[in-house]
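Pilot study result, target chain (269 residues):
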Amino acid sequence: MSSKPQIVIEKSGPVGRLVLNRPDKLNSFSGVMRDEIATGLESLAADANVRVVIVTGRGRAFCAGADVQYMADLLEAGAYAEADALVEAGRRVITAIVEMRKPVIAALNGPAAGGGANLALACDLRIASDRASIGQTFNRIGLHPDWGGTWIVPRLVGPAKAAELFFLAEMIDAREAERIGLVNRVVPHEELEASADEWAHRLADKPALSLALAKQSIRRSFDSTLDEMLDFESDAQNRCFRSPDALEGTRAFVEKRPPNFTRSKDAGA
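Predicted structure:
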């Protein structure tokens, strides 16, 4: 077995990158890789110097989902407890992204299938290479969507389109994914890394508390009443009023200069 790390953490100023690093296997999830992804995300979440996280893949794929050979070996051996543990490890990854106070950008450098698709869809924003594709391919191997797909996909595209994606299990190209709202932006393949970095640095220059609370509000809104969201907005705005960034932002606007928001303080949302 190769000793090459299956994920790589990179940091450049306020931007952290989690890179899936099994290019020879299309970055499919090995047995321990899910836990390594979760640990990597949790470490980036805890780093006060990292304000934005990018998740991407090395090589020609973003992530092909489960390592099907590994899964087949488990099922042939009747190792259902081990298979169940893989699903729980996926839960830990998705929870780490959703609960992270920082924006998370998926940079889709190639195909994203099954759990790999839902890893991307759990991120707050998705930018895709024009060579990328995405698909809910679970039933091709007799499985049910996991990694939060049944929660995420209907919220992005509606229940009817979600049913089509889940039932037909087809891979769709980046432009179609953009059209139906699965990705935010498609760029030429050779521009993907620079475009993701540019987006990340723009977000890193924003007030961290404001972004963190906005991320929470988006997630809450699907399961809350209008009154509940108005209450949340009021609490969030009161927190922002009392933050140094609100004072800096309003002063900068009045003085007609760019704001210099606090870069090292954790959002604390």
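One observation from the pilot: The longest helix spans residues 80-99. A full batch analysis is planned for the follow-on phase.
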